[in-house]
Amino acid sequence: MKKVSSFLLGLSLAVTCVCVAAAQEMSPGNASIPKVLQITREFVKPGKAGMAHDKTEDAFVDAMRRAKWPTHYLGMNSLSGKSRALFLTWYNSFEAWQKDSDATDKNAALSSALDRASMADGELLESVDQGVFYFHEEMSLRPRADLSQMRYLEATVFHVRPGHDKEWTEVVKMAKAGYEKAVPGAHWGMYEEIYGGNGGTYLLLTSHKALAEIDQAFAEGKQFEAALGEDGMKKLDELYAASVESSQQQLFVFNPHMSYVKDEWIKADPGFWKPKATATSATKAPAEDKKAKP
């Protein structure tokens, strides 16, 4: 069987996605991709996941809703790797992030509610870590800001060898051109980890409406190979081997109990984004909160 590069395999699984209706593509929430992404990982103690964790997370969402807070976040659970919860928060800039944190500190009611929620949530956790990522538009392909109809997220992490940024940039450029030509529905957002991890770490994110879309990825990988041709694939493999030290893919499912989303998302699909409360009371803070890494 013909050898397929690791990068191709990663992208073929990561970029396949059902195209969203034109109305959604034109939605205000899809106008731009915020530059700063904070990702928080919570590793839950054995036996404390599921409804127990949903209950403490409901408290954070409730506190943010009562405060009508303008900053939103998306929560999800792992379907691969070590069991964990993932929380993504986007900001237009680092300045916007600071303003959000400062405003939270000044809001006594919200801060108090988040502190109480953090104490309750902390009882369920083994550990927490965070990472801060920066969006690279030139390395992304038709990225989507509106995830209201999506239900799964794939995260592919690439660790680039020191001093090999030029080769890595060429790898992404070739892959992007190949998928633009061969797979019209392909899309992804590329982020570089700025704080919280080793240098040279890049995160490729893509969303799925259903897992059946991943089944399509293998066939589309063949289309990608055909578009680059034998010589192009050989060059891509060589550049990838020279520039990438390692890579890893993980799959997550969105959890509405852990997500504080925009009202437009809830109106678009209240059956999913507005689940029944799990009988709670607690709340989560932006610093230790729902914000940082796959």
Write the topology of this structure.
Layout: H1 6-14, H2 22-25, E1 36-44, H3 51-66, E2 73-78, E3 85-91, H4 94-106, H5 108-122, E4 125-141, E5 152-160, H6 165-182, E6 188-195, E7 201-208, H7 212-243, E8 244-254, H8 263-268, H9 270-273
Antiparallel strand pairs: 1-3, 1-4, 2-3, 2-8, 4-6, 5-7, 5-8, 6-7
Helix pairs in contact: 1-7, 3-5, 6-7
General description of the model:
This protein is of the alpha+beta class. The chain starts with 5 loop residues before the first helix and ends in a 21-residue tail after the last helix. The radius of gyration is 20 Å and the shape is globular. Helix 3 (51-66) packs antiparallel against helix 5 and helix 6 (165-182) packs antiparallel against helix 7. It contains nine helices and eight strands. Residues 1-10, 12-30 and 280-289 have low confidence and may be disordered. It has an eight-stranded antiparallel barrel, surrounded by four helices. It has helices at residues 6-14, 22-25, 51-66, 94-106, 108-122, 165-182, 212-243, 263-268, 270-273, and strands at residues 36-44, 73-78, 85-91, 125-141, 152-160, 188-195, 201-208, 244-254. Helix content is 40%, strand content 26%. The protein has a single domain (7-273), classed as Alpha-Beta Plaits (2-Layer Sandwich).
